[in-house]
Write a structure and sequence with these properties.
Blueprint lengths: L1 E3 L2 H13 L4 E6 L5 H13 L2 E6 L19 H10 L4 E3 L3 H4 L20 H4 L3 H16 L3 E5 L3 H13 L5 E5 L19 H6 L2 H14 L5 H15 L2 E9 L12 E10 L2 E10 L2
Parallel strand pairs: 1-4, 2-3, 2-5, 3-4, 5-6
Antiparallel strand pairs: 7-8, 8-9
Length: 283
């Protein structure tokens, strides 16, 4: 595995692969890799010849009171995991390499409307940071394919919208959520949970599963289902941020006539913010 730290080194490394007609796959990450991240790499390997994994804790997608400074950084362990998967290139740039004029003075990419709800409402400016860094990585690598996890469902929807709106020649693949044995969606932030919180955390997925089951049985009173689930989460000790049943494609509140839905939720356990989602297809 080649480890590169500059845009020039990355592009020099990719030039020979591209000139020989090889397909480039991209997996953007912020490191502290778990099995979910590694599945993204495996999926990318099925769709491309040369895989670039990026490791960059992007400051522009963190809010003023969020966990940028404490975000777990496990570089050597990440390298070992990627080596074991025969990853071709790891791109691990510095902040100055990505934002030579500083993040505040950099050009930003903004996707309207779809970024105003859910995590976008709770974390103002977050998605501008995401779309800016992702568009930069697309330009740096000129990748043919990029793989993102469906756990961050809104992020995936925003990136797809950006690619469509800006005519970026790349295929976006969404990888289904990888879960722990008890149903908890794998996340780098799960390591923040105390032992007691970790035992409670899978209840978020269980409550979403109950909503999924209710809708599958024909209960389309979405507002009541949402309200009851929020009460359940609060009674268990969660602090709900949001819980909604939306149309899967446009992330607007679901209507009874909609067929493809997504149940999306974010909730705090202590200071740890957990997110999860489940797809529902109505017949």
């Amino acid at each position: 595995m080649f480890i590169v730290n500059t845009v020039k080194a990355l592009q020099d490394c990719l030039a020979s692969h591209r000139s020989s007609g090889k397909k480039i796959g991209l997996v953007p990450t912020m490191g502290n890799l778990h099995h979910g991240h590694l599945q993204l790499v495996k999926t990318a390997q099925q769709h491309a010849d040369v895989i670039v994994v990026t490791l960059f804790v992007n400051p522009t997608q963190f809010g003023a009171n969020e966990d940028l400074d404490s975000y777990p950084r496990t570089f050597q362990d990440d390298c070992d995991k990627l080596e074991a998967l025969n990853t071709d290139i790891l791109f691990a740039p510095s902040i100055d390499e990505i934002y030579p004029r500083g993040g505040d003075d950099a050009t930003h990419v903004h996707v309207p409307n779809i970024t105003n709800v859910l995590c976008g409402a709770s974390r103002p400016g977050h998605f501008d940071g995401v779309t800016t860094i992702v568009s930069k990585l697309f330009n740096m690598t000129r990748a043919d394919v990029a793989v993102f996890g469906e756990k961050d469902y809104q992020q995936l929807a925003v990136i797809r919208r950006m690619v469509d709106d800006l005519n970026i020649p790349i295929i976006i693949i969404g990888e289904p959520i990888v879960r722990e044995a008890d149903g908890l969606a794998m996340s780098s932030r799960n390591g923040y949970l105390s032992k007691e919180q970790r035992q409670l955390a899978p209840k978020l997925h269980a409550i979403l599963s109950n909503i999924h089951q209710a809708i599958s049985k024909g209960d389309y009173d979405f507002e009541t289902l949402e309200g009851a689930a929020k009460v359940q989460l609060s009674e268990l000790g969660f602090k709900p941020d949001y819980l909604h049943i939306y149309h899967r494609d446009n992330l607007r509140p679901a209507k009874k006539a909609d067929k493809d839905l997504v149940i999306v939720a974010a909730a705090f356990l202590g200071t740890t913010r957990l997110i999860d989602n489940l797809h529902v297809h109505c017949v």
